[in-house]
Q: What sequence folds into this?
């Protein structure tokens, strides 16, 4: 007799309720609708599921026709990480831009407007904000997704974001607990390790999470990172010391006192899949104190849902997971679903079409412009040379970035070209720079870079271009760690579409330099 044959209907429904799977396509597949009817309580959406706001609204209505209280989750940070506008780039600057401005009221307003648009499309759980303190400038996966490198700044903007998002009726999910900012490894690819003591953890990483809990964040997402000072053997997602002993413990026992929903980062990420396996990882996460299992960024079919459901049921049978723990987790999922439904009813539908320029306004304020005294704005055509790194998985490679579209619109006759690490490896940096110079002809070069301090090939190519054409402009759309170079240097603090537009306006002389000019 199989495990499922002897499992109670309640156990089966609870095992489904704690999963947050994804799927492929812009319509809900039949298997997903069937599993929602069986007890699945959440669905995760990605860029592949969204063609337009209207289509997304129809999709979420399709899900709610089967389960009215379904949690529809999305990874919509704004800025570089967007699913709503994956095909065009975001209408909102990301966290680093907002942190650079350092106006919590603006951050709250941006989050509220983003939440209003999400709710208008039927999304009620946002896997954001990132509360990571970007203390390691070489971090390959956080970077501009962080509000900054100072814990107090990150804390006040994390709290403002949570408040703005939830005031719009969408549950905020503060991530990546207990802090992914001091890593030099992307947990999508391997298991990062942070060798800091508990004192540093408390004074740096945990400060924004304490602020988020105080602000009432409904959800916290765990990180697949190993902190030996906390747990020598298991990453935070699988660690009772992290999820129960630290996150949930009351303040008088050194914890954060969080009593909301804990969701894991995606369990198919290699930090979990390659070390413990997906099924075993899900069981360990629930046993450690997680309430929901995120899966579906890479594995997005019915098979993974059934594999995880069966693994949880089997773990209960074998004594590896207490049935009471699974029931508690499922109850937290349903409690959140009840909150989102009540908030949506209280907030009311606000549509998706109301125009708002808050994103562009914020992007303009976030610019840091450094202009040599002899450099003058010009409306002559330019050549946009994008030095393009490999995008990390969180950002994705489908979202356009850079100034090419904006500057060819503003300055007719402008040209564009893009070069990446493969070009530098194949031909050498000198040859790459020579190709940029030849393509530019006599037009001014606008070199667009992203985290130039992290990519030696990019820095060397930029140096070679500037040596030959010192009149060039440089636009840094990542973390502006390197010193400003070029006749004109613009740091946008992110690569959202509105950041590109704000920078292009300065390059084209359509707007005076931002207040951030130095």
A:
């Amino acid at each position: 007799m199989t495990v499922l044959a002897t499992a109670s209907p309640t156990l089966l429904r609870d095992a489904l309720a704690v999963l947050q799977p994804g799927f492929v396509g812009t319509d809900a597949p039949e298997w997903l609708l069937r599993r929602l009817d069986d007890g699945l309580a959440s669905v995760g959406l990605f860029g592949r599921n969204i063609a337009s706001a209207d289509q997304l609204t129809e999709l979420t209505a399709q899900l709610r026709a089967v389960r009215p209280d379904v949690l529809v989750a999305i990874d919509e940070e704004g800025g570089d990480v967007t699913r709503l506008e994956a095909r065009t780039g975001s209408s909102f600057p990301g966290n680093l831009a907002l942190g650079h401005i350092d106006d919590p009221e603006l951050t709250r307003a941006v989050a509220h407007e983003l939440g209003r648009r999400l709710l208008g499309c039927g999304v009620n759980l946002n896997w954001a904000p990132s509360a990571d303190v970007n203390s390691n400038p070489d971090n390959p996966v956080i970077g501009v997704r962080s509000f900054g490198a100072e814990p107090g700044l990150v804390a006040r903007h994390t709290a403002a974001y949570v408040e703005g998002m939830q005031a719009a009726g969408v549950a905020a999910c503060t991530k990546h607990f207990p802090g992914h900012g001091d890593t030099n490894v992307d947990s999508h690819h391997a298991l990062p390790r942070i060798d800091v003591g508990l004192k540093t953890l408390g004074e740096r990483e945990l400060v924004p999470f304490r602020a988020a809990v105080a602000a009432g964040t409904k959800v916290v997402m765990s990180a697949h990172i190993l902190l030996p000072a906390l747990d020598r053997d298991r990453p935070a997602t699988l660690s009772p010391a992290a999820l129960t002993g630290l996150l949930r413990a009351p303040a008088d026992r050194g914890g954060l006192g969080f009593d909301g929903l804990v969701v894991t980062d995606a369990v198919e990420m290699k930090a979990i899949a390659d070390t413990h396996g997906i099924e075993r990882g899900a069981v360990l996460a629930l046993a450690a104190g997680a309430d929901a299992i995120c899966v579906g960024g890479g594995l997005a079919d019915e098979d993974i849902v059934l594999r995880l459901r069966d693994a949880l049921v089997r773990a209960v049978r074998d004594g590896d997971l207490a049935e009471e723990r699974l029931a508690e987790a499922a109850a937290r999922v349903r409690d959140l679903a009840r909150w989102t439904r009540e908030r949506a009813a209280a907030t009311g539908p606000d549509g998706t079409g109301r125009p708002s320029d808050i994103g562009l306004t914020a992007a303009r304020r976030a610019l840091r412009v450094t202009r040599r005294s002899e450099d003058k704005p010009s409306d002559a055509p330019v050549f946009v040379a994008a030095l393009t790194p490999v995008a990390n998985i969180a950002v994705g490679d489908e979202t356009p970035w850079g100034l090419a579209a904006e500057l060819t619109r503003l300055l007719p006759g402008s040209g564009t070209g893009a070069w990446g690490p493969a070009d530098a490896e194949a031909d050498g940096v000198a040859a790459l720079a020579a190709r940029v110079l030849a393509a530019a002809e006599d037009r001014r070069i606008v070199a667009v870079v992203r985290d130039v301090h992290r990519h030696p090939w990019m820095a060397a190519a930029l140096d070679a271009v500037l040596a030959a054409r010192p009149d060039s402009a440089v636009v840094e759309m990542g973390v502006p760690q390197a010193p400003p170079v070029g006749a004109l240097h613009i740091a946008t603090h992110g690569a959202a579409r509105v950041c590109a537009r704000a920078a292009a306006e300065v390059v084209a002389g359509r707007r005076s330099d931002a207040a951030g000019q130095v």
Q: What stands out?
A: Residues 504 and 510 are 8 Å apart (CA to CA).
